[in-house]
């Protein structure tokens, strides 16, 4: 087990009530669980997202914390949050990283695995 390690899992959902396909506006939420799977307490300081739609249009988002928090996680602890994004296409993907600082001052990045944003398949 690595001393400095966060594990990230993601669940996504399409929000038809907030979307307007006639205006090429598709709204998705993503729920993220960040777990400290390392052996040293560490704090999530900032985030960097790369959001790509089906037309290969890329938006990059950088900022402090997540949803107004900079959680300090001891080994085994986890933090969950839900946020959202809008795409101009019915499919896209997101990936990125969290910048973290351990209690001993060590700095590290946690990769956010790429995940797909897509309208649910419908049967006719």
UniProtKB/TrEMBL annotation:
The lineage of its organism: Bacteria, Pseudomonadati, Pseudomonadota, Betaproteobacteria, Burkholderiales. HAMAP family: ApaG (MF_00791). NCBIfam families: PRK05461.1. InterPro entries: ApaG_domain, ApaG_sf, Uncharacterised_ApaG. This is Protein ApaG. Transmembrane segments: none annotated. It holds the Pfam family DUF525. It comes from the Bacteria. PANTHER family: F-BOX ONLY PROTEIN 3 (PTHR14289), POLYMERASE DELTA-INTERACTING PROTEIN 2 (PTHR14289:SF16). Residues 1-124 form the ApaG domain.
């Amino acid at each position: 087990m690595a001393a400095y390690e966060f594990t990230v899992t993601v669940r996504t959902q399409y929000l038809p009530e907030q979307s307007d396909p006639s205006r090429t506006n598709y709204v998705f939420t993503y729920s993220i669980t960040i777990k400290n799977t390392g052996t040293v307490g560490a704090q999530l300081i900032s985030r960097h997202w790369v959001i790509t739609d089906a037309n290969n249009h890329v938006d990059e988002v950088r900022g402090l914390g997540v949803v107004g928090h900079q959680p300090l996680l001891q080994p085994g602890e986890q933090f969950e949050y839900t946020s959202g994004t809008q795409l101009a296409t019915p499919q896209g993907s997101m990936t990125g990283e969290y910048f973290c600082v351990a209690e001993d001052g060590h700095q590290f990045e946690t990769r956010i695995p790429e995940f797909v944003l897509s309208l649910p398949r419908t049967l006719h």
